[in-house]
Design goal:
By secondary structure, this protein is mainly beta. It has 1 helix and 24 strands. It has 2 domains: 77 residues, Roll (SH3 type barrels); 193 residues, no CATH class. Strand 11 and strand 12 form a beta hairpin. The longest helix has 28 residues.
Length: 308
Amino acid sequence: MKYIKEIIIIALMICFGKYSSFAQSFINNENNYQVVIATAGLNMRQAPSLNAPVIKLLGYGEEVRILNEDSPEKKLSIKLKGKATLNGHWQKVSHRGIDAYVFSSFLAKVDYDDFPTDLIHEDFALLFETCSTKENFQFRRDFTYTGIYKTVSGKYRSKQLNPTYYKQENEGQSHVCLATDELEENILFIVGSRKLAISTYLGKINTSNEHKLFDERKNINKDIYYNDENGTLIYCYDNMEFKLNHKDYRPTKIFWKGDLDNDGIEDLIIQHGQMSGKMVLYLSAVAEKGELLKQVAAYSFEEKDLVM
C-alpha cells in the first residue's frame, strides 16, 4: 500500500509539472492572439491583396494567432460604408490550422474571457460612434440598433443602422472605435435592443455644461433635483421618485432626457463620473412594479473618449 501511494504521488508530481509547463507556455504566447471585432465578420485571404481569393470568413469574436509583425509594404486603407476611413495593414494569422491574411484594423487584443462586454440588462446596449480606450463590446447579433439624431430644425429623429468596431493606433496607443453605415448625419448615441422598439421625436440632448451637476444643490429643472452633499440625483414623476445613482461614480451631467421607448414617460442618459466613468441609460418601459425607471445599459468612458 505504501508503494502504491508513493507511485501515485510521483505520477501527480509529473502531471503537475507538465501542466505547469503547458500553462506557462500558453501565458508566454497569449500576446500573439487577437479577436475579430468586425461585427459582420472578417475575410481570410490567400494573399495580402483585396483581389486574393477568400479562404474563409471569420466570425465576430473569433480568436486568431498572429504570425508576423507589421510590414510597411503591406499597408492598406479601407473606406467603410459610412464616414470612417481605416488605416491598417495586411496581417498574417492562423486559425484552426489555416494560415492566411486579414486586415489588421478589424483585430484587437482584448481579454477574451470578458468578450463581449457584460450587459447590465440582457436586452439593451448603449453605444457611441467614437473611439475609446475602454472596452465597450456590447454588440449582439440578435439586437436591433437605433441611432438618435438631431435634425437641422432642432428636433430629434431615430433610424436603424448597422454598427461595427475597428481598431485605431494613435501615438502608440490602441483605441477601439465604433463606426456605422450612416453617411450624412452625426449620431448622438445608439441604443441596441433585443425586443423593445426604440424611436424618438421628442427629447433634449446636452453636450454643454448647462446641466452639469458639480458644485450645485438645486433643482436642475422642474422634475430633477441634485443634492451635492450626498451626490444624489432624484427624478420625480407623477408623485414617484427615482434615484439616478451609480455604485462607483457620482452623477455629473444629464446627457439625454426624452422618450425612447414610446410609453409617454421620459427616459434618461446620465453621465456618472467626470474624468472617467459611465454613461448610463435609464428606461421606463421595463421598470419593475413600483419603480419609475430601470438602469439597462452603460458605456464606459474616459473624458478624452467622449468626443460628441
